[in-house]
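Suppose a colleague, Dr. K., hands you the sequence of a protein chain of 389 amino acids and asks what its three-dimensional shape might be. Before reaching for any lab equipment, you can write down a predicted structure in token form. Begin with the sequence itself:
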Amino acid sequence: MDKQTTSTPIWRNRKAVPIILQAIFVIVVGFALYFMITNMLYGLEQIGLKLGLDYLQLKASFPIAESLISYSPDDPYIRALFVGLLNTFKVSFFGIIIASILGIVVGISRLSNNWMVKKLATVYVEVFRNTPLLVQIFIWNFAVFLPMPKIQEALHVGPFYFSNRGTAIPWFQVHSTTGIWLIILAVLVIAAIVLYKLLMKKEIETGKNAYPFIISIASFTAGCLLMFIAIGSGPVHFTAPAVQNGAFVGGTTLSIGFLSVLIALSIYTSTFIAEIVRGGIMGVPKGQTEAAKALGFNGSTSLRLIIFPQAIRIIIPPLTSQYLNLIKNSSLAMAVAYQDIVGIGNTVINQTGHTIETIFIMIAVYLFFSLTTSLFMNFFNKKFQLVER
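The predicted structure, expressed as tokens, is then:
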């Protein structure tokens, strides 16, 4: 008798079942998207709106207190949103720098042999890490900066002025030779780097200290002094602020909202960075520290030359996540009237009714900042990874 072959049912076929399930998932998601999009278009049609970006060319008709570029209410909405983008970039950029410095200092302090330094760093981390960021922003805004003196009675410390309208600090102004100076500085920086590498190579080959860092910095400084003498002016002019007719004149003024968000973001994020730094240093084998001591290195030198360069490989990946969190947390700035992309976007929505388009623009801005930061940190991470032989 011929053997009868029995086929496996399709619902028991290991190759077919995953394909069927994925197809069903795609169909369900497609129907859900179709329902939401058609419902959105119907709702917009009911209120007389159509999807499009033509509204971005209309006059904004609202002021913006802080702007890195020239702006007036007569400018279109697209320029107002660009101002918001730059304001978001400003608070995120300086926040990342300050948070990184604070995080490294506090993280190293938590491993200090000094009892007082170690405990103070621990209290700093535990207090600010466990307090909600929005609460910290409100504390800085309403409890620290707003109670400051009026501008007529502004607290004057050196060239700095502190008042309930903001903090005025010295700032620079470009002039006719600024472009020439930028080219010269770029050349001097490249020359200093090349000199540093040559001297470092010589030091390694001869075993004698060639002082590469000191000589390269000295050569860069000497080049700048020579160019200053030749040109007769520096790359920029600095202006000091002053109070005239109830307003700050000269320098630049940092608003209460910007300072509140910047300080709160920097301190809050620095607590997480501090723990990352501490964990990275502790992740380096103890034998490295013992070897450094055996070679006669003191604590700070071994940390700078041996421990931290190895710890940075552990630190960078989680550090990237904290940078991304800081950028996204900057959206809380609207709570204290700092006009970032979210605050200006909400104003545009209230005036035009184009909610969908404006929200997608805000999403695109944060996506751009996040992806750019991730790409830079990934590139930075590859430079510090061990090369496999």
